[in-house]
Amino acid sequence: MLIKPYLHHISLNVTDLERSKAFYGGVLGLEPLERPPFDFLGAWYSLGDNQQLHLILYDGETLRSGEINSRDGHFAIRVESFRQAVQWAEEAGIPYDARPNARAGFPQLYILDPDRNIIEINAESLD
User: Fold this and answer.
1) pLDDT digits (tens, 9 = 90+) for 33-78
2) CB atoms < 10 A from the CB of 110, how many?
3) Which is more confident, 2 or 17?
4) What is the pLDDT, as a whole number, of residue 3?
5) What are the extents of the domains in the chain?
6) Per-residue confidence band for 85, with pLDDT thresholds at 50, 70 and 90
7) Can you tell me whether residue 120 is helix, strand or coil?
8) In this structure, what are the phi and psi dihedrals at residue 93, rounded to the nearest 5 degrees?
9) How confident is the model at residue 114 (pLDDT cuts 50, 70, 90)?
10) Is 46 left (phi over 0), alpha (psi -120 to 50) or beta?
11) What is 6-58+70-115's CATH superfamily?
């Protein structure tokens, strides 16, 4: 069992980034956040005290038939221990994509639920 999970961010695919930024930042009034220098376009916004919304400009399909693709729509939960999350996935027999030194600045573990929805499990730092 994962220890004290909580929602970290929600990631949504968008087809027109400027239109989406006008809606989330302008219409909804969400506060923009700095975003790491990924090699694809997007925008980050603050949601609540520690939660975030990540918009990803994406033209791929979202009905998954292939492997885990972290750029596809997903939601993330933060846990206290990245290594325990990896151990949990291994013990549960869940296929995963572990990224202990992810470009995002925190370790990430991606899994698929039974319907092939992507779930990111991350930790503040690598333990």
Assistant:
1) 999 999 999 999 999 888 999 999 988 766 677 788 898 888 898 9
2) 23
3) 17
4) 81
5) 6-58+70-115
6) very high
7) strand
8) 70, 30
9) confident
10) beta
11) 2,3-Dihydroxybiphenyl 1,2-Dioxygenase, domain 1 (3.10.180.10)
Task: Report the distance separating Cα 50 and Cα 56, nearest Å.
Answer: 19
Amino acid present at 15: T
Average pLDDT, rounded, for the chain: 90
Cα–Cα distance, 24 to 30 (Å, whole number): 6
Which of 32, 91, 89, 40 is CA-nearest to residue 69? 40
State pTM to two decimals: 0.72
**Total count of residues recorded for the chain:** 127
Regarding predicted confidence, which is higher, 83 or 28?
83
**Amino acid identity of 98?**
A
Kind and range of the H or E run holding 90: helix 82-92
Alpha-carbon span 65 to 118, nearest angstrom: 12
Name the residue type at position 95.
P
